[in-house]
Each structure stands twice: as structure tokens, then as C-alpha cells.
Predict the 3D structure of the following.
Amino acid sequence: MIREVETAKPEYVVFVRNRMSWLSTSRDAEKAVLDWVRGYLVGAYHRVGAIDHLADQITYRWDDEAPGYAPQSDTYILLFRRNQSK
């Protein structure tokens, strides 16, 4: 999967943080993809969206508000867009 993403160089990457996603709370969970994505996004992508789910409230941050927003819950979605080539 990692090789496919690196080859495709998608315009957008959606990161979903949910305690049940990828079974990341399991000691035996495969964490290679999660470790890889952190490094992959740095430099090549910038955050353009953040959706945070707190209790019964959903907070949306788009464009200029997204990069500095720190999610307040353990359940959120981050949207990244590939940086333009110079």
C-alpha cells in the first residue's frame, strides 16, 4: 500500500483518527503505515481541513484555519492537499 501511494502521489490524503480505526489500540496492530504516513505528509502536503468530533458537537476548520487547529478529541479527520511543484 505504501508503494502504491508513493507512486500515485495523490492530490489529497484523508487521515481518520478513531480508536477503532486500524485497531490502533491493539498491541499487535501493524503500525508501519501509521508511522510512514507521518513522515510522508511532512513537506509534500499541507493541511486544508480538520473535522473534530467532541461529544455532540462537530467542529470544522477549512483552508487557512485548518493548519493551526489542534483537535480536542480522539476522533477527528484531517484533510491534506499535495503542495504545488515549483
